[in-house]
Amino acid sequence: MAGDALAKRPEIIVDPGGVPPAALQAITQAVDAIARLAEDQDGGEINRLRRRARDATLAALATQGYFSPKVTLEAGTDIGGETWDIAIVPGKRTVVESVNLEFSGRITRPEYAQRVQRLRDDWRLKEGQPFINSDWNRAKATLLDDVSTRDFLLARMTSSRADINADKATASLHVSIDSGPQVRMGELNTTGLKRVPETLIDRYVRYNVGAAFDQNRLDQWQQDLQSTAFFRGAFVSLEQPGDTQQPTDPISDRARAPGSEDAAAAAPAGDPTVSGGMPPPPAQFDSDGEVTLPVQVRVVEAPPKRFSASIGVDDEAGVRVESLYRQNVVFGQPVTMETGFGVDRLRQRAFLDILLPPTERGYRDSVGILADRSDIQGLEVTRYALGATRSQERKGAGDSRVEYETRWGALLAQDHVKIDGGDSFTLPTATLTAEWLRRDVDNKYDPREGNLISVGGGVGVTLDTGEPYTRLRLRGQKWWPIGKLDVLMIRAEVGRVWSNGDVQVPDDFGFRTGGARSIRGYRYQSIGVHRDNAVVGAPTLLVGSIEYDHYFDERWGMGVFVDAGDAAESFGDMKMSVGYGVGARVRTPAGPLFLDVAYGQRERDLRLHFSLGIAF
């Protein structure tokens, strides 16, 4: 029948003959791509595809340094249809015998001798290493980048060649780099500005005309501009010489061997690889001299105004409504204004902040005013405040995943405090605060492994009596991955306030705890010092928690936990409030969603808690 002449996809069986995993993976990928074409083909086409599969195996072996292999492909059949049995005798793997790096242009001057030696020392594909095509291309690209990222923007690779001796299994490598002239940075040209004043560009892109080109500086300027709220995109580069052509691949550098025609990957930019091409035209300047190129800054401004609103729900505060209005450029100045409000059953607040652009060192400064009212556990506080903050985020050294956050604050506040069943008073204060956080986690919003450490403190004074007070707080959290999906987590927090006698301190300086993100099984901030019919901030705090989360798949899971702690007049007066329970876990793009049922042992009460995001 006609249908019997059509083939199914053959089953591939590879006897690798001792080739390493990377080579086997390259072979499998190459042959599978051809095997997929075998479906619904007639017999004549199948024979051609078998030959292509063998050639692809040879090509894949060549990319891994095997230039004299023996490959046989035998077709067979089993209950599932046709099979291709590929047997490989790879032969000796080619290794690098010699490396010849040649340089021309201004970089050959004596003042660059140490740099040239460093380029030779840092060459990645060294003598004695296996000749792998991807490593060869990567080594050339790295060499060209190392030359062109500082001083020599116009550097190009004039030739590169890998001479393969298949009989001896050796490779001789030759690479020639023309550095071109030394490039200096000229006048600044900015395009794309409409509303944002040019003074913002000048705030970041600072250099003396004639300074030596350094790509790292351009990258930093670009990153600084992109980190502001004023631009959707920012691009910083040097203008290339007009109509200067890039090299057009004069010489082939691909290692050739039987079956290797399709083996080499695309070569790096600036690397000549097309056989038969003509050499590029000579540059229009002395390659041993200097050239000054303008600095080009191109920006795309962000929308000048933005309004957002949200609605949420909390197990303690109930429905929460929030809104935010944001405006870039205020009265022609490169600053951002944010104003908004938030309302729920326990707290209502409105604010206006002016945010300055980040500084060259990454500091983010802001000033603002605040009106805030809260009524929690019988303590009603109405605050009017004027404050300023400075924050900084930075990465750890190298490729470290560690992140650091630092925040400093200064606040002038007047609190109107009313204690249910007790006193009412006004508390004017001035405070200075600082907090340092170190984050080392695998995922910022849903960690399975890592830790967080935070140290914060502050000093203040009551403006009516001149009494000082001091606060110190230490927090830590640690995650351990268990098996493929499960997580074990511990969390701890300790704090202390020092003040004289009966000095009243601001509500946010004292300690209260209890609720979804502290001690589950108790009402929100219900653990503290009892005064009349209210719970007020305590001078000391100690909280600990341990939790085990088991996930059934990547999204759904359950957890068991024990929380304990207290906020009291002193550590010696503490009586631990213990809460324990079980809950559901759902991973979402905004972080894990927790739905917990917890029993508070002190109050002998069962409570439901839910929260979104990590507890820290």
From TrEMBL:
Which keywords fit this entry according to its UniProt record?
A: Membrane
Q: Specify the superkingdom.
A: Bacteria
Keyword set includes Disulfide bond: no
Q: What is its main location?
A: membrane
The region called Disordered is annotated at 239-288
Protein known as: Surface antigen family protein
Mention any one GO cellular component term assigned to this protein in its UniProt record.
outer membrane
Low complexity: compositionally biased ranges: 257-271
Q: Where in the cell is it found?
A: Membrane
Domain Bacterial surface antigen (D15), residue spans:
420-616
All copies of the TamA POTRA domain together span 18-89
